[in-house]
Amino acid sequence: MPRKARSQRKAEIYAVAEGFSPAPGIFSSWGHAHPLVTGYRNAQFQSFTTVSEAERYLARKEVKEYIRMIRPASTTSFQRGEKAYYAVANGRSPGVHEYYFGDDGAEPKVVQFSGACHKRFPTLVEAESFMADWANMYSFVCRGETKQELCQVAYPLGVAGSPKAFVKEPEMETTDKIVWDRLEEIKA
């Protein structure tokens, strides 16, 4: 007997209680959450189907202040036999693939790759959005780590001030700039 196609995907919400800055937070994209927890010693995070479940998780962890990066849930669902897109945000060869298995698929890019981040999507737009989410958050985490390292550097005589003056701000599209500015406000 054939299985029924799912009418709608379950929402996936990620709560990060402990991770790289700007954690803690609640995120609707694994692309946002993954860079915050991968490589972070004793990271604390969990996935949920609702925002309220994620909020209760953070409350149990005694997290009072956190960021929220929530988008409306996708109305697109996987239908049996329809094409899927496999986004590899972090792997041997990042990109969007039309197949999971095979030499040109996503599997060889992520299997036995520490810290791999990949996910299946019903549309190319969602797969590309996931890739952008991951890249933007990873860039933000790396930028914060670099600033911390620069702050610990011994400056030569005559050089004063914050290393922020020496770090070039990235050029980005308007929507990315809005998210970036919001993260900077929260981090400050």
The residue-averaged pLDDT reads 81
Q: Major sheet: size, sense and barrel closure? A: 4 strands, mixed
Question: Helical region count?
Answer: 5
**How many E-type strands?**
7
Distance between the termini: 57 Å
Q: Unreliable stretches, pLDDT < 50, 5 or more residues?
A: 1-7
Instruction: Report the radius of gyration as a whole number of Å.
Output: 19 Å
Helix content: 25-40%
What oligomeric state best describes the polypeptide chains here?
single chain
Strand content: 15-25%
Outline type: globular
Structural class based on helices, strands and sheet pairing: alpha+beta
Element string (H = helix, E = strand): EEHEHEEEHEHH
The figure for the number of domains is: 1
**Numbering strands along the chain, what is their spatial order in the largest sheet?**
3-1-2-4
What does the model show?
This protein has 188 residues and is of the alpha+beta class. The chain has one domain. Helix content is 34%, strand content 16%. The chain has five helices and seven strands. A four-stranded mixed β-sheet has the order 3-1-2-4, with helices on both faces. A three-stranded antiparallel β-sheet has the order 6-5-7, with helices on one face. The longest helix has 28 residues, at 124-151. The radius of gyration is 19 Å and the shape is globular. Mean pLDDT is 81; it is low at 1-7. InterPro entries: Ribosomal_bL9/RNase_H1_N, RNase_H1_N, RNase_H1_N_sf. Pfam families: Cauli_VI. It comes from Coleophoma crateriformis. This is Ribonuclease H1 N-terminal domain-containing protein. Residues 13-57, 85-130 form the Ribonuclease H1 N-terminal domain.
